[in-house]
Amino acid sequence: MRVYSADGLILRTYRYGEADRIVVFLTEDRGKKRGVAKNATKSRRRFGAALEPLTRGRVAYVEREHRELVRLDRIEPTAMLLGRDSAQLADGAAVLGHAAYFAELLDEWSPDGMANERLFRLGAAVGGALGHVSSVSSLARYFEYWLLRLEGVYPAIDACPRCGRRVLSAGAVLVLADRAYVCRECAHGGPKLSADAMQFLHAAATRTPADVGGVSLAAGPRRELAHAHDRLIATHLEKELRSTRIVKELGPDS
Ligand SMILES: [Zn+2]
C-alpha cells in the first residue's frame, strides 16, 4: 500500500454502488488513474464540488498491490472553472459544456498509468483559461490543435507537402487520407481553410491559451476550423476504436 499526493485533473466520474463514485483523473507525474471515492455523494468535506470535469486539484490517493482501482481519500480544488469575472465574459453553460468536452478528449488520448506531462500541462492551462476567455470556441480550436500536435498527428501549417513550394498562409485544403494541409493548386477537393483560419493556427502555435481565447474569429474561419478538427479527431479516434474492437474480437489469446 502506498499513499500519493498529486496535482490532478478530473476527467469524469460515474456511479459505483449506492453511494460511491469512480473518478477518472489525470496526474502530472503518473498519468491517468481510476479511483473509488467512497461516499462521494455524501462526503462534501472530502470531495465537495471537486468532481466536476476538468477541475484541477491536489488529489490524495492510495494504491494497493494488484488492484487497478486506487482509493481516493481527498480532492482539494486549486483552481475553479468559473472565475469571478466569468459572468460578463463567457456563458456558464458553454464553459461547463466545453470542460466536459476537453476532459473527454484528454481521457481518450491518455493511456492508463502512463505519465504525459505535456498533455497534463495542456489540460491544466486550457482549464485555467476556460472560465476567463471571451471566446470559448477559439479556446476549443486551440485545445484541439495542441492535443493533436502533442500526439504528432496535426498537419504541418507552413509549406504545402505536395509541391513543397507554396506556403499555406494564403489558404489550404485538408486532405484527410494524407492527414495533410495542401495548397489549393495541389488539392482536388476537401475541407477548405481560409487565410484567416491559417493565421489563427499560426497564432495557436506560438501563443498562450488565454491570448488565443481572447480573439473572436469570424463565423467563416470558425466553421472551417471546427470542421477540419472534427474530421481530424474522428479519423484519429476511429482508428483507435477500431483497433480496440479488433483486439476484442480476436479474443484473449491473441
Ligand atoms: Zn502545393
Give a description of the structure.
The chain is of the alpha+beta class. It has 7 helices and 8 strands. The chain has a 5-stranded mixed β-barrel with strand order 1-2-3-5-4. A 3-stranded antiparallel β-sheet has the order 7-6-8. A hairpin with a 6-residue loop joins strand 4 and strand 5 (70-79). It is elongated, with a radius of gyration of 20 Å.
From the helix content, strand content and strand pairing, which structural class follows? Answer: alpha+beta
The secondary-structure element order is EEEEEHHHHEEEHHH
Associated small molecules: zinc ion
The backbone outline, from C-alpha atoms, is elongated
Helix content: 25-40%
What are the SSEs and their pairings?
Elements (H helix, E strand, L loop, with lengths): L1 E15 L3 E8 L3 E7 L18 E8 L6 E10 L6 H4 L2 H18 L7 H14 L5 H15 L21 E4 L4 E3 L9 E2 L1 H12 L2 H5 L5 H32 L4
Parallel strand pairs: 3-5
Antiparallel strand pairs: 1-2, 1-4, 2-3, 4-5, 6-7, 6-8
Helix pairs in contact: 2-3, 2-4, 3-4, 4-7
The chain binds zinc ion.
Care to give the gist of this entry?
The chain is of the alpha+beta class and 254 residues long. It has helices at 86-89, 92-109, 117-130, 136-150, 195-206, 209-213, 219-250, and strands spanning 2-16, 20-27, 31-37, 56-63, 70-79, 172-175, 180-182, 192-193.
